[in-house]
Amino acid sequence: MSTIITFISIFLLQAVMAVSDTIPQCLSLHSDPSHPISAVTYFPNNSSYPPILEAYIRNLRFSSPTTPKPSFIVAPNHVSHIQASIICGKNFGLEMRIRSGGHDYDGLSYVAKAPFAILDMFMLRSVKVHVEDQSVWVDSGSTIGELYYQIAEKSKILGFPAGVCHTVGVGGHFSGGGYGNMMRRFGISVDHIVDALIVNAEGRVLDRKGMGEDLFWAIRGGGGASFGVIVSWKIKLVPVPQVVTVFRIEKTLEQGASDIVHQWQYVANKIHDGLFIRVVISPVVRMGKKTIRAKFNALFLGNALELVHVMNASFPQLGLVGEQCTQMSWIDSVLFWDNYPVGTSANALLQRHDAPEKFLKKKSDYVQKPISKTGLEGIWKKMMELEKPVLTFNPYGGKMSEISEQETPFPHRAGNLYKIQYSVNWKEKGEDVANRYLYSIRSLYDYMTPYVSSSPRSSYLNYRDVDIGVNGRGNSTYAQASVWGKKYFKTNFDRLVKIKTRVDPSNFFRYEQSIPSLASARSIVSEELALKA
């Protein structure tokens, strides 16, 4: 008996070693030999594996010794590396995680429960600006800071509507929607994407014409990682004035913050569409007493004189005066909104790691009716009780109300006054500490239920939140995925499922919140009947 056990043990060890040997062979076989994939492939026994893995983990909750690690990492610098990774991932039964900037708040771009590999896109960071037709081809591994920098290098009167955190990767940002502080004038990032290159589940490289309009629709806000690996995007730039104006004003409860925020709800989505006023609500301690601070951050696509006139006419409650306004170029406003001191060089936008990472959790909501002053005061009381969670209110209206919910998978358009981001960050290690912070943000989210959208209670895909639901292991059913899918995509979820079923029937591109393929689930459940054409 012991001889048999010994034989089996040796056989299994040889099998494991054979697989380890064969993955590199498979990758080499299916990639361009003039761009050796071995130079950008990292296995756990490679000394570069830990720093490559950790470089783009932006949430320390997913950087512990017990966090599942990938079987290997490929950092492609050639499209054939992506093709080979897909083919070999299929051959060896591995799930594929696709990471561009690492800002998936719940770590789904670099963590999995099943055996997996990571395609780490950071080497693909080309940005080619064409001023003549006001377009850019930008790789998914670029950051939006690099995109902004290259645009500003070529033009002082062109910009792009995207996010305010410069280290966010283009790939995830665009494929989830991509909102920013010019969205009331121009809409969001996906409203300006005109072409893309994707590697599909068969390893084929397709542009917009090759992939067809359905798939092109799906990747512009439906989460690209459900459908393939998006290599690059072609975007159309937007005009920006040579001079824009910013301000940042703080008010506490003692300074009338409740009245001002209450009025903001009636104004911010209707005011001049070139004005974006974000409000960040934080519990703070002043003079030994708990209070609430409301910080009003604004970008105005115009000069200070015009801005003061607009504010006096529409929002005098804030009390803005000319001395509180700062005029600057659009690219300098990008730095201001990313909390750099005025006068910072645009070179700062090229830095990919300029602050220590933290433990964090985010959530989101949409508000469609103004919250009463009494309601706001109850929220302030809850926030002071919990002490840590912060709320960020982002106004809608303007161009956002003019675009149909069905134009792209991103459905959060007309009817929304503002979006809420819930945020809690911490530096202390330990599971008990994490649970305390997670409890605080979830408690605030629960408290907000009466004040936010319902049926569904909507969420923003790029504020990834596994609390709202996840797929089951393996091939998820429509019913399982619709729990979270309707919150992100509303009625667009059904169209996304149809497209997924057609372009990736075997459900190779899957993760905890990927769009399900009904073809792969039919042996389990017949819920595809719910999606009759």
UniProtKB/TrEMBL annotation:
GO MF entry, a single one: oxidoreductase activity
Domain FAD-binding PCMH-type: 66-240
InterPro entries the record matches: BBE, FAD-bd_PCMH, FAD-bd_PCMH-like_sf, FAD-bd_PCMH_sub1, FAD-bd_PCMH_sub2, Oxid_FAD_bind_N
Biological processes per GO annotation: cannabinoid biosynthetic process
Highest taxon of source: Eukaryota
Cofactor names: FAD
Keyword Flavoprotein: yes
Record-stated family: Belongs to the oxygen-dependent FAD-linked oxidoreductase family.
Protein name per the record: FAD-binding PCMH-type domain-containing protein
Organism of this sequence: Phaseolus coccineus
Organism lineage: Eukaryota, Viridiplantae, Streptophyta, Embryophyta, Tracheophyta
